[in-house]
Every structure is written in structure tokens, then in C-alpha cells.
Amino acid sequence: MTIEKNKFEAYIVGGCVRDLIMDNPDSSGPKDWDITTNAKPEEILKIFPDSFYENEFGTVGVKIKEGDKTKEVVEVTTYRIESKYSDRRRPDEIKFAKTLEEDLSRRDFTMNALALKIRNHKSEIRNKSKIKNSKLKTEKEKLDYEIVDLFGGQKDIKNKIIRAVGNAEERFAEDALRMMRAVRFAAQLDFSIEKKTLEAVKKNSSNLKFISEERISEELKKIILSDNPAEGIELLHETGLLQFIIPELQSGYGVAQNRHHIHTIYKHNLLSLKFCPSKKLEVRLAALLHDVAKPQTKRGEGEFSTFYNHDHVGARVAEKILTRLRFSSEVIQKARLLIDNHMFYYNPDEVGESSVRKLIKKVGLENVKDLIDLRIADRLGSGTPKAKPYKLRHLEYMVDKVSKDAVSVKMLKINGNDLMQELKIKPGPKIGAILDVLLAEVIEEAEKNRRETLLLRAKELSGKDLLKLRTMAKEKIEEKKEEDDKEIKDKHWVK
Question: Of 30, 155, 252, 443, which has fewest CB within 10 angstroms of its CB?
């Protein structure tokens, strides 16, 4: 490596080493590469003149280029130790350390306190695939790579354990967000939090209130988008962290519902998130928060208790929660829209095309699938074994049918006004007849749907027996409607 050629130490460090050791075949490998070194920031800048240093943490951004373009930026940080954390968020001052051991001892978890030294300098940092494909496990491979593991990180990775480096309470006192990171890693990696580390989280959970909403939000997003989001939220609850993130959600803990639900409000919300079929952040948030207002709208007790307007109240509550947590306005408004409409009514025997059009107009065609995904999450979270019953499949069919409008004159590139202006035709049935014939021909050959082509054909038709042609056109249009309807029905498994 270039840094070592300049007589300094350099190690790949942290989460990227963890990801390499885990060697997950479903993973694309580390996304961020971090280097730690005994070189000071000003010395790193001399080695890499095109780099930048815009922080107080001793981290220099080194540009990795391909030709004239910057392919990526690798963070190179000087060994450091950190002083007291008065605000439980950041060190009062940054002090540079002399040894790698000092640097690793300040890190959060053993699985992240790993350093990797490249012995074979033909393997550059940028050659991720070569490093990724080396499992870093056999004695032979240790000739190329040396792993510095001072705190048993490799063993903890093997046993799927999240353990704080050194004294857990000290690590969490340094940065309270580390408690939430422990939960996030548990959800992302399907690991367990070691007993003493878990106890330290529970004991110090109130310190999370010192952390900014932006930092909390980033960790929450990663939990929600992990493969185990419900388990992550439950772990936040068990550790006492949830009350400092979404206390409104926790207020449903132990609150029974009615005859339509076998679970408490809190557990139902959790299971709805667990079974949400969507991977979208806003849909998963809607699944978690869709019944968040049920505790405050509950009237009565027992199997006949009610929760009138919990959907509309819940939409407003969810908006406040997500705004407080600094989510983007796009995510907030989308989640609110889904929660506000998650109680939509649909029965194939009672609801026709006009009602489906109204639903589409209300929520937007682009949001209908997400709304159905939320309904599926709601059903499965209620203990219903069938995710998508006939009603929902039929709704999908109706949405498909009315949104395509595949056999309407609206699809033509000309309209009645064009015919009146170009052909000097007065308003009357002749205009509709011509448009029907044009539509029938476009159904047969879509390439004819061009303004110039249609106007030329309309001139030819204007002097013909349009009653006969119109009859033929209607037959063709109805035939096409039946074909499309059957195709859409088959797609959604409805009759």
C-alpha cells in the first residue's frame, strides 16, 4: 500500500473486515472501506495531495480514481483515543494514539474492533473482489493477510454474538447511539446481544435522549429495512430504548382489541411489520404505525370494543412521529396516505368500477399496490392465515382493468375537435362513428395511432357508409374488451 511505502503503518479496519470474515455469499461485500494508520492527517495529505480533510476526527478522504474520474473515496483515519464524552454523543476532544491497540480499544463492538493487514501488496484496496473471495480462514491465506483481533471479535462473529469492547457501560457512556446500533446489528445480522452488553443497554437506555433525532432516524431506518425488522423493534422495547424513539407505539403494549383480533395492539403492529410483503421504507413504516392511534380511540372493553376513526387519527399521529424523527417529507406523506386509507372497503359483489376509480383517484394509481401490501400486512398481523384472499385479488383485477382503459377512444392521437377542424364536420354522430372505426383499426395495428395517419384515414372514411363500418368497429372493440378482460382475470386468478 502507498501509505506503507511511505514508512507508516496501515490497516483495513472495522465493519468492512467483519463483512469480509462473515463471507456471506448473498452479500456484495463491504460498501465502505476504512483505513487506520499512525500517519497524521497532514502526513496523509502529503501522500495523497488530491485528498480532503474537513473534520476534527483525524479522517482524511482519499480519492480512488479510474482515469480522470473519482471511483470512490476511502476514509483514512489516524490512530486515536478519545477523551470524556460530556454530552454522551461526541468526545470532548480527539487525541491521536501511537498504537493500533489503543485505537481498536475505543471501538464499539468486538466484531468491529478487527484490523486487517495486507501482506501481499499486489492486492490493492480497490480490488474488493479479490479480498472478498479470500475467506481469510486458512493458514495458507494468512500468508497474504494478517488479522489483528485483540478482543475475540472473530469468535463472536462465529457465534453470532454482539459484545461491547471492554466495559459495555463505558462504551455506551461514550456514545449512547451505540446501544441502538447494537439492536440494529442484531436485526441486520441475525445476531444476539451478549448478556452483559444487553444489561448495560437496559441500564443506560435513558441516555438515548441525548442523541439527535437525525442519528436515531438513520439507525431506525436500517432496523426497519433489515431482514428482521419486527425482532429489532421488539428488542428496542425489551431494552427500554423504544420509549425514547416511538413512545406512541409502546402505548399499545398489553392493550387488548376486540373480537376481530387475537393480539394486543402493540403485538399486532409488530406482526404487521414482520409480515409486510413490501421492502419499501414508507410501506413498512405504515405497517408498523397503521394502528398507532388505537389506544386513544378505543371505546369500551371486551370483544365489542370499538376504534372508530383510528385510521384517520393514526395518520396524523404517524405524521407527527415521523416528522419528529426527521424522516423525509416524501416518506412522511406516503406513510400518512397509506395509514389514512388502510381501512378501505371492497366487496366484489357491492363495489363497481366507479368505486374503484374513486379509490384510485383518492390514493393515486402508483400507490394502490402499496395500499394492498399494507392490507396484506394488516391481515397477517391479525393472525389471518391467508395473505391475499379473493377480495384483494379481485380488487387488483379491477384496478388493472379500469386503469388500462385499453379500448377507449381516449387512446387515439386525435379527438372530435380535430375532426371538426380538419374535416369541417359538424357536431353529430358521424364524429363518433369515425372515431370508433379508427379505434378498431388501431387495436389491430397500433402503429397507425399517429395524428397524420389518423387524419388521412378519417378523410377516407368521411364519405363512406359509416353505419355499417361502425357496427363492425363495435364488434371488434367488444371482442378486444373480452380478450383483455380474460387476460387480466387470469393474471389475478379471478372469475
Answer: 155
